[in-house]
Amino acid sequence: MVPSFLDPRHRPFDTPVRSVLFIRLTLVFAAYFLAGRIGLAVPFTSANVSPVWPPAGIALAAVLVWGYQMWPAVLLGAFLVNFFSPIPHAAAFGIALGNTCSALVAAWLLRRTPGFRPALPRLQDVFALVLLGALSTTVAATIGVTTLNAAGVRPWSGFISAWLIWWLGDAMGVVVIAPLILSFSRLARLHGELRLEFAGLVSAAFGVSFLVFDHRLGLGVADNVLAFMVFPFVIWAAIRFGIAGSAVVSALVAGVAIWATAAGLGPFVQPNPIRGATLLQVFLGVISVSGLALAAVSAEREAVESALQTVQELARWRERAEKALRSSEQRLSGIVNSAMDAIITVDRLQRVVLFNSAAERIFRCPAADAIGRDLDHFIPARFRDAHRHHIQSFDETGVTTRSMYSPRALFGLRSDGEEFPIEATISQVESEGQKLYTVILRDVTLRRQAEEALVKSEKLASAGRLAATIAHEINNPLAAVTNLLYLARCEENLPEAARQRLQLADTELRRVAHITKQTLGFYRDESAPVRFDPAELLDDVLALLETRVKAREVAVEKRYRAHLHVLGSQGEIRQVFSNVISNAIEAVQPGGRLHIKVSSSRDWRSPASCDWRSPAGPGVRISFADTGHGIAPENLERIFEPFFTTKKDAGTGLGLWVCRQIVDKHGGSIRLRSRTTPLRPGTVFSIFLPVAAVFENKKRVANQS
């Protein structure tokens, strides 16, 4: 592992603590001094000029990584390197000053380059280091050569050639050594097979370099072209190990080439030392820059491929997320549309954005017409201000869900203008900066009707119990009065006029007794089935309703063609007859007629009806035909539904529903025909009762079970 203060990824130009700063300065000084002594050990033209000057790369890398604070270490290292060489001390200081300024200028130029990264991960970073680093070394070459000439170490006539060698040497130091230092930490992350491969690469490159530059090992040919046999290893290092691998192999080849050339070996040994040094520098520059460029291109390609894979993976994740979202939306849409309660979502302006199937059914409005409309279209006018106030206060509380108001205080408005009671809860949520309100409401019309019907039923039951009590109490006085009238009529000296009056009083008294009996019959239903004649039961009901018939001036016509006895509940059938006749009386206008017909019939629904002797076959059909206004066609299918009524507030909607339940219980059937034409309007109820109604019903229940 590399210490954090040595890691090239460390942020430069931060002010470190004194101990860290001292360690960094010491390391830079030691590295610069040692590299400088090694560089001067293989001079080509003079004691202070080298074809490759490693300290230039060390100085630039130190300033790039750790900041401008490294200048004292560079200055001291450069001064001591030249101080111990055979040149004047003043010249040593001038050369040190030039080398320090060169490193600072190079770092300053690179730091001003937009997007430059010292780790050299891109091709543009490599080119910036090569071009600007090489350009900045002109400062060191100019100051250094001028200092040597001024001190008399070199003649002024060789200024240009010395300057060129100096500049190329510093430039090669930047190109070869700086990338090695800046990227070396990456090699510490190699592991397993990569380490073995890198060791094999370095060994092979080292061996081939010796074969090329030392003819004593076997090649024996000093040809410049053979020097490029090391290129495959540079390419291998660049592709497999990036900038760091390429920099290591280039530095290794450079070290072998410089040593061999200085020793008079290899293809770059020339009669003219300057020419040989120039060829060597060009060779090192080519392999180093080529390797760095190839490594940068390879790294960029890998980065692009990695980014592409990341994008593709993100695209796959997005596709899966969108698929999951669509699936979730479909499930949510299925839940919302299959909900029995209406679900309506509105925005802050109370415009409808969601209107499910239940809402369409309850409000009788298609979702296409509801979306985008103001919610006020579904709220009665008298409740709109209260609704807006409620929404405003609900928004201010921040509560997510609550009941809107008392169920008895809220009504909805259907598209046809009908109001109906509802229960509702409201919730709020903020999505993408938009506040949404969702109302879940339920039509409680049937429940309200059931509650009202229950109240009316209790009232009727209470009235029935009171009437039965009164009728029971009246029976005893009626019996006494009847006996007294009988005794009074038996008087021998009673005038005829008085006898007639007593006879009339006896008739009316018997009528009162009959009404009392019927009243008790409605309240006291028989617990066990009895045989009764439907025709006689009809007469009893008509007698009880005689006052209403006369008040409405309705003419009742009876045709009793059969007197079959039915086994069943006499009280329940009396209730059926009473409901049907009462409805007919209310439907007929004054002067209208009610036809009641009793006849023998058969239950054609039963297979046993083919045999007259079968108990399930024969029965009695009772028809009620009135000349009233009739029932509208759209109401015919709903007339037997519970709580459905055409009488508005005058009816509970349970009468005909109860009648159907009673007739079904007796194994019979009830049918309806109605016309609303102006010429012959009217309604016909046809009720069929089997002779053995109770027996047949029990038999059917047993067969079904």
Question: What would the keywords be for this entry?
Answer:
705 residues; six-stranded antiparallel beta sheet; rod-shaped; 12% strand; Arp2/3 complex 21 kDa subunit ARPC3; Beta-Lactamase; 20 helices
Write up this protein.
This protein is α+β, with helices and mostly antiparallel strands and 705 residues long. It folds into five domains: 1-189, Arp2/3 complex 21 kDa subunit ARPC3 (Orthogonal Bundle); 191-334, no CATH class; 339-443, Beta-Lactamase (2-Layer Sandwich), CATH 3.30.450.20; 448-524, Helix Hairpins, CATH 1.10.287; 528-704, Histidine kinase-like ATPase, C-terminal domain (Heat Shock Protein 90), CATH 3.30.565.10. The chain has 20 helices and 13 strands. Strands 1, 2, 3, 4, 5 and 6 form a six-stranded antiparallel beta sheet that branches. Strands 8-10-11-13-12 form a five-stranded mixed beta sheet, with helices on one face. Residues 1-10 and 606-615 have low confidence and may be disordered.
